[in-house]
Amino acid sequence: MKTVNEKARQRKKFQYYFTSILSVILGLIIIFPLFYAICSGFKDNINFDNYPPRILPETFRNLSNFIYVVTKTLIPRYMLNSFVIALSATLVRLIFSTLAAYSFAFFNFKGKNVLFFIIVGTMMIPSEALLISNYLTVSKLGLLNTYAGIVCVYFVSASQVFMFRQSFKTISGALRDAAYIDGCGDLLFYIKICIPVSRPVITALGLSSFINVWNTYLWPLLVTNKEEMRTVQVGITMLSNADSNAKGHVFAGIGIILIPMIILFAISQRNMVRGISSGAVKG
Amino acid sequence: MRSSYNNSVAVSVAGSNVRHKKKLVNVIKPYLFLAPITIFTIMFSYYPFIKTFIFSLSKVNVAGEITKFVGLDNYIDIWKRPDFINAIKVSLKFAAMFVPLAVICPLLLALIANRAKFMTKFYQTCFALPMAVSMSATCLIFKQLLHRRVGLLNYLLEKLGIYENVTAIDWLGSAKWALPALVLIMIWTGIGFNFMLLLAAVRNVPTELLESASLEGASYWQKVRKIVIPVISPTLFFVLCTQMVKGLTMSGPVMILTDGGPLGATTTMIYYVYSAGFKSTNYALGSTASVCAFLIAFVFLLFNFKYEKRGVNYD
Question: Taking the domains of chain A in order of start, what are their residue ranges?
């Protein structure tokens, strides 16, 4: 009896180490491209044509690529553009969807279900199918090459409305009625109670929305053709197309645009897990 | 239930004039809260959607103005175009390779991560990190890794002795391998999000179920097949649907890496829309192609939902 137990325990121990080590190895394989990209920022341009290829640079002290990217290319300007776009899109998105969610969570009114369906229905329309018409709308409004032209398509997020509605519904209706009788109007209730109470959801959705908008490529490419209005994602591919021999510069640029996102991600990961797992599936 | 105040509070307000005004405000208020999002939804989702559809039934000039209504002519024309038929085939081929891997890889990772108890934080961050990386950066990194002569992948394959008698594969430059290379890139970018979703679902599987199964001597894979998969099936279904749409509407890496080539081997449906609409400014053709792409993705989704009841367990 004892030996069977011992064996089982040993097997369990083995499994425990095996899966753990396997996970760590798989994790390393998955982040390898990022590790490679960051290391490559420190390599000289000629290094990329050598065979056999190397992973590590000769030295991590060689910052010339980074200095070149920051001083000689428009990457800093692109980063500013992307930052403005991602931030404004995220803020407007959050305001729009919390307002809408408030309405869906607390009011009864005619057409509530129809309006909810209309907004959530946008999830079924792939944004790629709308490219041409949206491009024509934006160009007709004279918004090509402007921040407004880039961000305007990002203002609606049906999934955010959905999740905020869920979150607001946890606030008791009695509390709201009491506040109302005490003379606290809806707007005040929305600002003073709903927003603070759903802060975790707001941070989670806000951060993931920031990362998403920062990372978009196709739409900003279509509505900008002026150099200084490009976003960082478009800019970095342009940099790589313009000079295919300057790979050190391209990788330094990639490193520069990746690092803020990775830091933001590391900060928000815990929050994001919760945001993702709370809303996306419970349909 | 919650907003019964609409009537009750208004009654308590003295004075019929004030009451009337209050009432009106209360009637409009929900719509005011909804106004901003509704305006933008209509302007940038429904209006363009309908416009695209109307474009597909018309002749459109370079300025984007409709010159003539032509009925279904555009649709009849587009099905006669071998390049569009090719684009549909490429998209279907891509989805066929991409979707199973895009579901299975993160699922396996989630199962492994759920078991391992050592350095949890480290590898979970590793698995999820691709989420934070943009498509364009990913593409540029993989462009170097997949380079025919100096790429690390070919170097590794050669060291493993796979290339002894054959020439090294030109991953992004050959008609045969460009699409699988794009599958690899798309799997990598999508793995983080799906991993997190599935891990959260796997964690929610009730432990009593698993324990009682172990007591009855069920093996690990039996437990996965009979307990874990059915319990997480709503999440799996969600991942399957989103990945299917993603696979069928893939276009980013094509634009950055292959421009639809070599020889149209990576011209997906949405890349076709882009090249017809923006490179040749043929808005009618582009719109027709995007309606077709939308319909094809939609049909696949409907097909999914049809089988949902049989395989997905919501209790």
Answer: 2-40, 66-279
Measured on CA atoms in the order B46, B52, B53, B59, is the torsion positive or negative? Answer: positive
Q: Which chain A residues in 94-153 lie under 8 Å from chain B, judged by CB atoms?
A: 95-97, 99-100, 102-109, 112, 115, 118-119, 122, 124-126, 128-137, 139-140, 152-153
pLDDT over 80 at B93, yes or no: yes
Enter the DSSP assignment of B133.
S
Fill in the amino acid letter for A93. R
Cβ B236 vs Cβ B229: under 8 Å: yes
Kindly state the average pLDDT of the residues B247-254. 89
Strand pairing class (B66-69; B58-60): antiparallel
ipTM over 0.90: no
The residue of B26, B34, B272 whose CB has the most chain A CBs within 10 angstroms, and thus the best one to mutate to test that interface, is B34
Alpha-carbon distance of B311 to B314, in angstroms, equals: 10
Q: For residue B178, which of B276, B260, B96 has the smallest C-alpha distance?
A: B260
Fold topology of A66-279? MetI-like fold (1.10.3720)
Q: Pull the structure tokens for residue A276.
A: 């993702």
pLDDT (tens digit per residue) in B164-212: 767 778 888 888 899 999 999 999 998 988 888 888 888 888 888 888 8
Instruction: Provide the residue range defining the domain that includes B24.
Output: 5-55
In this structure, is residue B300 part of a structural domain? Answer: yes
Q: What integer pLDDT is reported at residue B220 of this predicted model? A: 83
By CB neighbour count within 10 A (0-12 exposed, 13-18 middle, 19+ buried), where does B169 fall? buried
Q: What is the pLDDT of residues B113-149, one digit of tens each?
A: 887 777 778 888 888 888 888 889 999 999 999 988 8
- pTM of structure: 0.84
In a domain, B36, yes or no: yes
Q: What is the DSSP letter of B256?
A: I
Q: Match 């105040």 to its residue by tokens.
A: B5
